[in-house]
Amino acid sequence: MRSRKIILPDIFLLCFLFYGCHAQTSSNNLLQLTGTITLPGVSGRIDHISFDSNNNYVFVSALGNNTLEVIDLKNKKVIHSIKGLHEPQGVAFIPDNHSLVVANGDNGECDFFNAAFQKTNLIQLDDDADNVRVDASNKKIYVGYGSGGIAVIDAFTCKLITEIKLPAHPESFQINKQENKMYVNIPDEKQIDVIDLTQNKIIAQWKLTEARANFPMALDEANHRLFIGCRHPSKLLVLDTQTGKIISTVDIDGDTDDLFYNAKKENLTNGQVYVSCGSGYVDVIKQTDANRYATSGKIKTSSGARTSLFIPELNTLIVAAPATMSGDAQLMIYKTK
Fold first, then answer.
1. Whole-angstrom Cα distance, residue 167 to residue 228?
2. Which domains, from first to last, does the chain contain?
3. Quick count: other Cβ atoms within 10 Å of Cβ 177?
């Protein structure tokens, strides 16, 4: 057979077939889309998400809709909608008393709901009540709010215990249970504040120079590593929690608002970091060891889908996609590999 001369378009086609198929295979090997759950009637921006492992319920802060959506993950459907909220941003399930706390950005209220989704209590904070964390071991709830504060709330009585003052509004924060410390993103100050939770006061402030707009955060407690998602420029910063020094930086997609660390169970390292980005991707970062990180691939989601939740016990990543001109809001359900 006479050989055919390969011309330039053929080369482009071969490159597309090889690299395009390789990228798709790589993405499928990282996260597999197993289904979607429609959120009918939910409009506007979607914020943070929480999970009740007892009932397999997912709670979604529909900020632009002023509702909290309750989804039955097993049956993949919305079973309830708590209405009349005021820009709900943060939400957390409290396992000890099977209740919910919702932080409202518009009026600063922290609303508490029982297992029947009836409102039982509220705590009035300054405006912009935002991220919520529950420390089940210490029976405390932490809420970031206002122009600079973390509210400490008793998880049983739902009463305010104290407030920790900060230099500006806190975004995501994580609790180091071994050292009883909290790391807090303070984007307006381009820094991370470290709080001693025994004294409830700031003991260190780590300035960020490589990137700013530090919003999401995750923690690898075993390896003393803190992951910071920045928007300007779009980077993942990896810090040593013992020194505050940056260990590694990785380029990511734009407009990130949530990120999670998935530790490899049979080894303390070789985990993965999932970064959900509003530009329409989930970036997957591989941890080779405590000091080395690189992008494994990225998964196409939807424009504006910047908030997510990783559920380790289900090996599941849930990504919230807001409504578009062509479709309803939805949750995209991925299984990790």
1. 19
2. 35-336 (2.130.10.10)
3. 14
